C-alpha cells in the first residue's frame, strides 16, 4: 500500500517549468511543487473564485476586462481570509518534506503562490464568466 506522500506525488505528476542547477530554491519549489498542484487543483480553484465573486454581490461580472484583472489582484492580496483559503487548498497537497521546506521559507513561497494564482485566474478569465 502506498503512503499518503507517495499517492500525492503520483497524483500531482512531474515538474512544470524549467528546473536546473542554477534555479533558486524558491524557483525549484515553484516549478516542482506549486505548478503541478495548481494544475491539479485548477477546476476547484476556479470554482472557488467564482463563488467568491458571487458572494461579493456579483460586482466582478459587471466590470471591464482591466477592472476584472484589478479585482483579481485585490481579492488575492487584500482579502486575507480568501487568500488563505486558496493557499490551504495548495498546502493540502504538500508532502511532509515539502511542508517542512515551505515552513522554512513561508513568506517567499506565499508570494509565489499568490502570483501564480493571480496569473492563473487572469489567464482563464473566460472560464470565470457567468
What can you see in these coordinates?
The protein is mainly alpha-helical. It has one domain. Helices cover 75% and strands 0% of the residues. It contains seven helices and no strands. α2 (25-55) crosses α4 (80-91) and α3 (65-78) runs antiparallel to α6. The chain is globular, with a radius of gyration of 16 Å. The termini are far apart. The mean pLDDT is 92.
Write the element-wise H/E pattern from the N-terminal end onward: HHHHHHH
Low-confidence stretches: none
Number of helical regions:
7
What structural class should be given to the helix and strand makeup?
mainly alpha
**What is the mean pLDDT?**
92
Largest sheet: none
Strand content: under 5%
Assign a percent range to the helix content: over 70%
Q: If you compute it from the alpha carbons, what radius of gyration comes out, rounded to the nearest whole angstrom?
A: 16 Å
**How many beta-strand segments?**
0
Distance between the ends: 43 Å
The coarse silhouette is globular
Count of domains: 1
Fill in the keyword field for this structure:
mainly alpha; Glyoxalase; about 0% strand
